[in-house]
TrEMBL record:
It comes from Umezawaea endophytica. One of its GO terms (molecular function) is carboxylic ester hydrolase activity. This is Acetylxylan esterase. Substrate binds at Y93. One of its GO terms (biological process) is polysaccharide metabolic process. Residues 1-321 form the Acetyl xylan esterase domain.
Length: 325
């Protein structure tokens, strides 16, 4: 893929005026208050994995609407009784939590690790998911972005982002977690969820978002045909009179609108040839962050894969510097 977005010098100062509803903060304060009426109810069950150096538990916590959300909690063996900093990780679009032996980077680095399942997803790739989305939807395009999307109150994304924020509370309640050191991490959809969680939950003390989805959505649906943004285009191609309602609803879930609420140190990443999560959206969110402690790694010749293991190495060093592990 050739370069298609703004030149890097323009990206570095790109901070557009985006659609932000006047009741954005009230909407999320109300949404989280409704979710908080349901106790987090973190249930933890030991899970044998065959791994000698990592202990794992099957976790259930209460997300949006009191619905149960699944997760894997893993930590280095032999660290019981010693509070560890935690990493809450969110998965990519279409992926579920999979098997507990799949994501071992963070526990291997000495962190308590909560890998959060994604409601309704898990059937596109990976090893599946275990969290249903019990809420119905009106007509939508195949996928998840347009489910209930004509009204922010009924949108699938409202439930998903609330789950992400609640997962931080669940991590803080887990055995032997240092609740003063909780990082949120994610790639693609997971990156967008991490930004939202950091903007919604003040317990987050570090944010790591790579090639994040849901950044400057209104621009992205005009510059890329890649999925999942193509779901919005497909929906509007059929529901021709719904454009205003859909764009208004999506603005309640746009990571650019959560970024100014984020004061935690942040490490972002983008590939300049990424058509799935275009770099202008990533920079729009990054440049809107309130924190002064922020870094973005740019991979000029990479698509959505970004820096892969090279970036993982930087993430480990960056978080070590801030959490002292």
């Amino acid at each position: 893929m050739a370069l298609f977005d703004l030149p890097l010098p323009e990206l570095e100062k790109y901070r557009p005026t985006t659609r932000k509803p006047p009741d954005f903060d009230h909407f999320w304060t109300t949404t989280l208050a409704e979710a908080a009426k349901h106790d987090t109810l973190v249930e933890v069950t030991p899970t044998p994995t065959g791994l000698a150096l990592v202990d794992t538990w099957d976790v259930t916590f209460t997300g949006f609407g009191g619905h149960p959300v699944k997760a894997w909690y893993s930590r280095p063996s032999g660290t019981a009784g010693r509070p560890l900093p935690a990493v809450v990780e969110y998965t990519g679009y279409g992926r579920g939590r999979g098997l507990p032996i799949e994501r071992l980077l963070w526990p291997a680095a000495g962190y308590a690790h909560l890998l959060v399942d994604t409601r309704g997803q898990g059937g596109q790739y990976g090893s599946g998911g275990d969290t249903p989305d019990p809420v119905g939807s009106g007509p939508s395009a195949p996928g998840f972005l347009t489910r209930g999307i004509t009204n922010p109150g009924t949108a699938y994304l409202r439930r998903l982002l609330t789950d992400a924020a609640r997962a931080v509370d669940a991590a803080a309640a887990l055995p032997d977690v240092d609740d003063t050191r909780i990082a949120v991490v994610g790639n693609s959809q997971g990156g967008g969820l991490a930004i939202a969680a950091a903007g919604l939950n003040p317990a987050v003390s570090a944010l790591l978002a790579s090639s994040p989805l849901l950044c400057h959505v209104e621009r992205n649906i005009t510059i890329t045909d890649a999925h999942p943004y193509a779901e919005v285009v497909q929906y509007l191609a059929v529901h021709r009179n719904s454009t205003a309602a859909v764009l208004n609803a999506l603005s309640y879930f746009d990571a650019v609108n959560f970024a100014p609420r984020t004061t935690a140190p942040a490490l972002f990443a983008t590939g300049l040839r990424d058509t799935i999560c275009p770099p202008s959206g990533v920079f729009a969110a990054f440049n809107s962050l309130s924190t002064e402690d922020k870094t973005i790694d740019v991979y000029p010749f990479n698509h959505h894969e970004g820096g892969e293991a090279h970036h993982n190495a930087h993430q480990l060093a960056w978080l070590h510097d801030r959490f002292g592990t």
